[in-house]
Amino acid sequence: MPRRTPRNALDTLRTPRGFHGFLKAASVCALIAGLLSPLSPAMAAGDTATEVTAAEAAANDHCGGQCSDILPPGQNGNATLAQILLNQAFGTQPAHAEDQLGPYANLATGYPGLTNDKINTFFNDASFGVPAGQVASTLRPAGRGDVTIVRDKKTGVPHITGTTRYGTEFGAGYAAAQDRLWLMDLFRHVGRGQLTPFAGGAPANQGLEQQFWRSAPYTEDDLEAQIESAAAKAGERGELALADVDAYVAGVNAYIDASDKGRYFPGEYVLTGHKDAITNSGTIEHFKRSDLIALASVIGSLFGAGGGGEVNNALSLLAAQEKYGVAEGTEVWESFRQRNDPEAVLTQQDGSFPYLPTPDDPQGRALPDAGSVEAEPLVYDRTGSAGAAGATGASAEAADTAVTSARRGMSNALVVSGEHTASGHPVAVFGPQTGYFAPQLLMLQEIQGPGISARGASFAGLSMYVELGRGQDYAWSATTSGQDIIDTYAVELCQDDYHYLYRGTCTPMEKVERHNAWKPTVADSTAAGSYTMRVWRTKYGPVESRATVGGKKVAYTTLRSSYLHEADSIIGFQMLNDPDYLNGPERFRGAVQHINYTFNWFYADSEHTAYYNSGDNPVRANGVDAEFPVWARQAYEWQDWDPAANTARYTGPSAHPQSVDQDYYVSWNNKQAQDYPAASWGNGSVHRGNLLDDRVKKLVAEGGVTRTALVKAMAEAGLADLRAEDVLPDLLKVVESAPVTDPATRTAVDRLKAWRSAGGLRTETSAGSKKYAHADAIRTLDAWWPLLVKAEFEPGLGSDLYSAFTRNLPVDESPSAAHGPTGAHAGSAFQYGWWSYVDKDIRSVLGEPVKGPLARAYCGDGDLAACRDTLVTTLEEASGRTAAQVYPGDDNCSAGEQWCADSVIHRTLGGIKHGGISWQNRPTYQQVVEFNSHR
């Protein structure tokens, strides 16, 4: 229904702005009480229970020691008050809080010397079970006799083994709470739009809850109904899922009770005022089914919902038509939109999968009148600190972010068929790119029980099943696909601003509100304040903005196919974990077809590879162009749409991009297949997916691909500057089309050429140096890119159209580009930018062939000499900028600190903080797999 929330939303969450300075405010009594409180027994070695060996699990493990994984910073995401205080005062880390961060970081400089026997220097052994002698602890949660939780010495990952289904899921819930209780609690409040009363009123927290409340403004009844609805549609599997959820929740609550009684609950509850360190008074609320749906709504809106941005699309189209006239303006707009660019890198290399073709005669368009669009207010009745400049600024930023078309993708995948590997078995290196947080959003686990056999990662609080990982003889992973499942409707107003026409009847909008109030705590000293969030819901979704269309007053609403269906994907995940069901690529595709979020799914066993694109893709009415707002009239609704249940006719499984045993697959949120457009802009001739495709294609052509070779390809791509690798050579061709006589510019050109010849990588001179090789060239390109793009395109487009297009697609997303959709220190980079536009335009000026060119030439108006003048002038300006100007500094880095500006920093969601690591553009959780046998 409403549009999805960008992934970078979480980058602003700050329960600690207070945590990092709270020692000054913490009372001596609280400090002493914290230090005297016991550590969690979850991590205590020497448990007297009998150690459980890995024999039974190992017997069903067909990976032969060739499955590995990694998930920084560490498995342990809970910390007592004592541990938080020690971390803040002395930097000490709780056990297993960051022991995966070092190996993960070291790959950036260690990959050139990688061999098969060194892979687990940078990854964990992901074999089933725990070898004898490596058991750190064994626990029977709540004294149950039907489940054990064994943790290994190296990483502290829970290995959950149950003899009953209920016991197995009870153990999964208990282990999740052991490792992520505070994070789970935080996110159930985020999902309900109630973060500030729980964690504090910091402006960043205000902005975050506002973003998610826009995306999923559910009532409590909505949340409770969704899990039952999902189960009811799935027959026996649905009943099983419901039982699994109940057992899982019971396990979570058992840990809450045990940790409360034992006083080893997360210390953040004390720091935020929910518990008293001296008396232990206060309550940690038990979990319930609906909490899991609140959690799922956060994850789904972040990573699994493509689309939206139709109003921004309309505004840029109107600007293009104003500049060039309707016909030429439409042609210019389409050339920048690149719905089906013939030069775009594809995941599915063969076949055509038509989805949302551009209609010859669009029907039902509802484009706004010029200057009439106004965002719908969300926040009312501000009091206290809610009215401060920082708070209102956070609200404005949240509103802007909610409507951008630059939706954050996640993850990458490299999968090679056994036909091209040294062993004859498929090799895969894949994982989700979900950002860097402390504690991490994902958690590792192994679950073995009746109908469940898997190891891998799951989102905290949704870990009744492994969501990305490996089974007995297969592995799977996903990347965000982002095809369009969100539409914008123009509802005609009647009677007043809060009634609309629904199929000819004047109908009242539904008002849904959240009243949030907060007060200062040790963790967050923000002064007391409050506000009300108010959303107006229609049958076509929540109101996003208001405008006039042809003089008529309308409200623009957003409709998402996964709205009211946040729990539906549970059946697909259940099937992925079931060894009795999943026995090959066809069953794999059968499982992921049950996942209604927009993902690319990848599979590998010892014989086959497979790919499938999931998502409930609604079938639009004939003639509707889903790129733009349409009238909220029955003729333009989704086919067979039921507004009460928000269901519709969806494209069938055969219409989704898919295949088995393609030579190789790569995905980095690029275009899925021919004629299958992504909802976001930027799928053109240059995309970060090319960084993978070029390398894997070369490996496949050479043959004999190994796990080592594929990890190296991933690691190198993760250090590459996309602009340097794929655009810079042609830019320098233009610059050097005449002699470069200015000494400073000549030096800059030579440095850029030397960097490109060395690979165009952003990498340290040596491990731990915190200085880049070719630092001056990197600084020059970082300064040059935004200057050259503006100088190349704004004169031809005009300021209004250029600005409109930059709202559709940001100009740049370098690692330090805090202005981009990722934000700074987030790792992920080079997904969104104008690199394809620059590439196509410069090649056109050079007279090189271009498939799918822009509608006209822009650099120098198509004249090579004039284009060169533009590039040289901007290069001269860029080369003269100091490091302090290019990297102005932030809360983590001083001005001019280039390496630090790029560095990956785990954003604190609790009381434990970690140091920054050198930049890598790679999955957060990652698997390296090669199975050598099959059941």
State the gist of this model:
With 935 residues, the chain is an alpha+beta fold.
Which structural class should the secondary elements be placed in? alpha+beta
Give the CA-based shape. Answer: globular
Strand order of the largest sheet: 3-4-5-11-12-13-14-22-23-25
Per DSSP E runs of 2 or more residues, the count of β-strands stands at 28
Rg, alpha carbons: 27 Å
C-alpha end-to-end distance: 43 Å
SS element count, helices: 28
> Approximately how much beta-strand content do the residues carry?
15-25%
Helix content: 25-40%
Uncertain segments are 1-40, 42-54
- Sheet having the most strands: 10 strands, mixed
Report mean pLDDT, rounded to a whole number: 92
What would you say this structure looks like, in words?
The structure is a single chain. By secondary structure, this protein is α+β, with helices and mostly antiparallel strands. A hairpin with a 7-residue loop joins strand 3 and strand 4. The chain is 34% helix and 16% strand.
Task: Give me some keywords for this one.
935 residues, alpha+beta, 10-stranded mixed beta sheet, 28 strands, 34% helix, disordered N terminus
